[in-house]
Design a protein that fits this description.
The chain is of the alpha+beta class. It has helices spanning 14-21, 53-61, 96-111, 135-144; strands spanning 3-11, 30-32, 39-49, 68-78, 86-91, 124-130, 149-155, 157-166, 169-179. Helix 2 (53-61) runs antiparallel to helix 3 (96-111).
């Protein structure tokens, strides 16, 4: 059975991507996300059977929430309180419309015959992946960036992306955009 590796995300405006990319520092063992790859993942779908792509797109096209302004502020790491695997920037924590959008996307995904991952939604933008770096180096970066803020931006659409894993990291390709 043929599949596509997919995720749903909000694209970031250039000014926000530039601000986020400017926070990257050379640190041993840390691989920074390329600026053109920065996004806010709403739902990772994984390998989706090609036969479900049309029903999925139809359901996603029907998702509606009022457009909203999304704040971008704060940094952190996953997992919290342990050696970091991911460095991230916070986005819209507790934002009602963002969570409304996520819930409506989940309903659309279920309606298309897919079973979404049921992990708690922690809105963030992945800035870097941490390999064999010391927790101390990542901790110093987190401390230095604790007051980081990027310009808030208006969300009026979301996108469906294909993700291809390569030796140089994932490559994301826009499949379709959906207006709110």
């Amino acid at each position: 059975m043929s599949t596509e590796r997919l995720f749903i995300a909000i694209a970031l405006p250039d000014v926000v991507r530039r601000e986020l990319a400017a926070q990257a520092r050379p640190l041993p063992g840390i691989t920074w996300t390329r600026p053109e790859q920065l996004h806010l993942t709403l739902r990772f779908l994984g390998d989706v059977p090609v036969a479900l792509l049309e029903p999925l797109a139809t359901r996603l096209a029907a998702v509606r929430v009022e457009p909203f302004i999304l704040p971008v502020a704060g940094v952190g790491s996953f997992p919290p309180k342990r050696s970091p695997h991911v460095l991230w920037c916070g986005v819209g924590r507790g934002h009602t419309r963002l969570h409304q959008l996520r819930q409506r996307l989940d309903d659309a995904i279920l309606g298309a015959g897919l079973n979404p991952d049921l992990r708690t939604f922690s809105p963030h933008i992945t800035l870097a992946r941490c390999g064999d770096t010391s927790a101390e180096a990542a901790g110093q970066w987190l401390q230095a960036q604790q007051d980081f803020e990027a310009p808030p931006f208006r969300v009026a659409s979301f996108n469906l992306y294909a993700s291809e894993l390569t030796p140089d990291g994932a490559t994301h390709t826009l499949q379709q955009s959906f207006a709110l």
